[in-house]
Every structure is written in C-alpha cells, then in structure tokens.
Amino acid sequence: MENTLIINRLKLAQDYTELLDREGYHLVDMNMVEPFYIEDKEHHPSTIIFERNEQLMSIRSDWTRSLLNYNENFYLSQRFFGYFGPVVRGYETFYQAGVELYGPGEDEVLKSIDMHLSFFKTKTADTYSAVVVNNDKLIDLYMEKYGLDASIKELIYEKNISEIRKVLGGDHPLTVLMTAKVSDQIDIINDEFQESEALDFINHLRSHLADYNMKFILDLSFRSPQSYYNGFYFQVFLNHDYPLLSGGEYNSSAFGIAVNLSNGGLL
Amino acid sequence: MITVALTKGRLYKDFTAYLEDNDLNQYIDPLSEDTRSLYTVVDNVKFIFAKGPDVPTYVESGVADIGIVGSDIIEEDTFNILNVSQLPFGDCHFSVAGLPDQTEFRTIATKYTNVASKYFRDKKTDVSLVHLNGSVELAPLLGLTDGIVDIVQTGNTLKDNGLIEYEKILDIHARLIANKRTFYTKEDEIYKFLTEIGVF
C-alpha cells in the first residue's frame, strides 16, 4: 500500500473525528473482540465468530452493531456517537468512520447528513453526482393501494421489469413506475401518494440538499447490503461508481451514516 | 461510456440475430466481425465477450454495467445484481434425463448442483449429486449415475447419446442484468441502451 494512501486516510480520520467532536458527538473506540449474539448472524454473515469460556465472541465487523450493543448494555447520557477504526469482514480488514444517532428527530438527521456533505465537499476536488434514496414503506403503500401479493416485493428488489410487466400488465401504475427512469420515480410517487410520512421525509431531504446540485434519485429497488436497515436508506456518490456515504434508519429509532474510506472516491 | 458483457457462444449468436431482427444496424456489423478480440467499442458502448458464468461476476463488480446471460447461470449461483429483464431469445430448459427404462433416480450427475439439489429437495426425493464440469451425458452411459440434470435445447445431444428426457425442471431464457451502483451513476447511458434494445 502506498504511503500517501495510509497518511491521507489517517489525516482524513483526524479531521473527521475533530469535526464530530466540535459538533457534539461522543467519540468511541472499543476492543475489536466483542460478545456476539447468534441472532445477529443473519444480518452480519461475514463476521468471524469464535467461542471463549462458553460465550460466543466475534471480531468487530460493523461499528453499527458494536455501538448498538454498547448502547443496549449501558446507561448512556449521550445520543450521538462517532467512530473511526478497522473492521474485519471475512478475512479482510476495512476502515470505517461514521456516526450513529439514537432517537434523533428529523431536523437532527437532516443536519447530520448536511454536516457530512459540507465536510467532505472540502476534502475533494470532485463534486457530488447523485444521492439515491428509498424507504421500504413506499413499496407497502403500493401493495396496500393496489392489493398486491407479497411476492411482488422480491420482483421490485431485483428490478425484474419483465416479470413485473407479466404479473401486473404494462399499464399498471407500478409497472409504469418501474419502467421509468429512476430519477423520474420521485415525481411519479409524489403524484401517487400525497400523504405519507416516509415520502415527507424524502421530500424534506430533497429540499435540504438542493444547494449541492446533485441528482436526487428515489428508486424502489434500492436497498442496503446491510439487512438491518428497516426504513429510510440512502447513499451519496461522488463522480465515482462506489458510494462515499451510506446510511439510514435501523432498529426503529436509530440512524447511522457511514463514510466509505476504501473506494468511495475520496482517497 | 457503458460496458456490456456478452456471453460468448450460442447466446451471442442469438443476440446478434435479435439485433438484426430489430434493425439495430449500428451494433450489427461491429459485433458480427470475425475477430479474436475480447472487446469492441460502438459509439458509447463497449462490448466485452466473456464466458457465461463470468458475466454476472463482471456485472456484480461494476467492471461491466450490463450483462446478457442465460438464466441458468443466475439460477445456479447467487449474485448481487439487478435481474432486469427476460430477453426474447436463448430459450431452453433444465431437464432430468437418463437411459430408457430407468425406473428411479438415486444418483444424478450435473454441472448445476444447486438447481438439481433444489429440484429434488422440493420433490422430497433423496438423491446423491455428482458434480461434473461437462459432457455429463457420459455419466449414465458409464454407470457413474442413474441420470443427469442438464440444459436441453433441441434434445439432439441426448438423442445422439441414447438418453431420453424424463422430467422438465425449469425454463431458461436470456436475461439482461445490471450493476446495482452504475444503474444510478450512469443512468442516462444505461436507459438509452436498454431503450434501444427494447427492454423499455
């Protein structure tokens, strides 16, 4: 690995953690070996698990899980946490940086996303190209409104347009939506559902990020590779094929944002 | 520029025939040239030629934005891709085949162990699978297994080897797949290509 890459990553981590400190986030660092609960295996399949003294242990593979366990095991006075450090997935080490917000209001989530975008804008000569968002609850709205079978979800997740067309017909509103360009979906969904909490948040975010002049894409097929996200989910791209920022809602009342320090186009 | 991974072999011929049927002249000549090159560029589209099982790997990694591949490959292995559309060519099917008068199948040779395993599990039939990389018709002829699970298109290969088809498992078609990230970052170019070839 090149010296400059290592030095740049450490510099960026220092600047980022200093930003979090100034903004009132509680910085945490933890042992990489931690207790593991087997029910988490489904959400963290690449975690290395072993047994010591009749207790399952693991090597940290995801800061969100580590912080969630920490939060559930201790009485904490803080709600907003920040981190930087290595995680191990399979046999590879990655570096993660990010924040976790417990019980945030909408304004606090929007402020945190904005803080990240403003900060990383100063760290690259590149510009933001797109933010991609989704919320699984929007699929539920279509299913309720049109009485659709649950099997339609899998077809939406894999963007199986030919099968959706076969099942629903070419004129069905969901087929029309799925065959539209992804950047046009948000206007089509807004026309379809005027009243929706999930859509309200997405529209607020869209207005909030207007100054960044990036494409705002809402796509019902868009999902996180981390299955614990269970509501709103987003990724932000520089002019690069891998996202710089990823994050969203999990565990009903928590919100996380992770920075991609490996291949997000920053280093 | 977008990159499209095409499966070499019969599917490739079917794809170029499909282009001809739909008067997609801009792509026909460059893709019909007899060359050993592993890629060709037409305007804003780079076509790469790959083995079927490698196409989803290229698409999953983002080396290719789009892939055209038989659904057999996607049925056999799991890939983190968008499985966008069935295409109107490359039709064939998975079948169980064996020698005439075979009364039961306790051992099966196949290249597609996951497809075969799921099929027999769904039927609650206890079958031992033997993985072979090709020419699976040899297995029952040499007494290695009772039968095979393989792709059948015309049925001529089975017939030539004295085997018959017992059960049809699953239809196979050509499919268009796409990378999960560049579908957003190269949206305009991808939609232009998908519209040109009739997916939208």
Strand order of the largest sheet of chain B: 2-3-1-4-9-5-8-6-7
Unreliable segments of 5+ consecutive residues of chain A: none
Radius of gyration of chain A: 20 Å
| Major β-sheet profile of chain A | 8 strands, mixed
Question: Taking all residues together, what is the mean pLDDT of chain A?
Answer: 92
Overall shape of chain A: globular
Q: What's the CATH first level of the largest domain in chain B? A: Alpha Beta
CATH superfamily of the domain at 127-242 in chain A: Bira Bifunctional Protein, Domain 2
Helix content of chain A: 25-40%
* Number of DSSP E strands of chain A: 11
Q: What is the H/E order of chain B? A: EHHEEHEHEEHEHEHEHH
The most extensive interface between chains reads: A-B, 25 and 19 residues
- Tally of alpha and pi helices of chain B: 9
Strand residue content of chain B: 25-35%
CATH fold label of the domain at 127-242 in chain A: BirA Bifunctional Protein, domain 2
Question: Could you tell me the radius of gyration of chain B in angstroms?
Answer: 19 Å
Work out the number of β strands of chain B. Answer: 9
Domain Class II Histidinyl-tRNA synthetase (HisRS)-like catalytic core (chain A): 11-252
GO molecular function (chain A): aminoacyl-tRNA ligase activity; catalytic activity, acting on a protein; transferase activity
Protein name (chain A): Histidyl-tRNA synthetase
Keywords (chain A): Aminoacyl-tRNA synthetase, Ligase
Helices and strands in order:
The complex is a heterodimer of chains A (267) and B (200).
Chain A: H1 3-22, E1 26-28, E2 33-35, E3 49-52, E4 55-59, H2 63-73, E5 80-89, E6 92-102, H3 106-121, E7 128-135, H4 136-146, H5 151-157, H6 161-168, H7 173-179, H8 185-192, H9 197-208, E8 215-218, E9 229-238, E10 245-250, E11 254-260
Parallel strand pairs in A: 1-5, 7-8
Antiparallel strand pairs in A: 2-4, 3-4, 5-6, 6-11, 7-9, 9-10, 10-11
Chain B: E1 2-7, H1 10-21, H2 25-32, E2 39-42, E3 45-50, H3 55-61, E4 66-70, H4 71-76, E5 82-98, E6 107-110, H5 113-122, E7 128-131, H6 138-141, E8 147-152, H7 156-160, E9 164-178, H8 182-185, H9 187-196
Parallel strand pairs in B: 1-3, 1-4, 6-7, 6-8
Antiparallel strand pairs in B: 2-3, 4-9, 5-8, 5-9
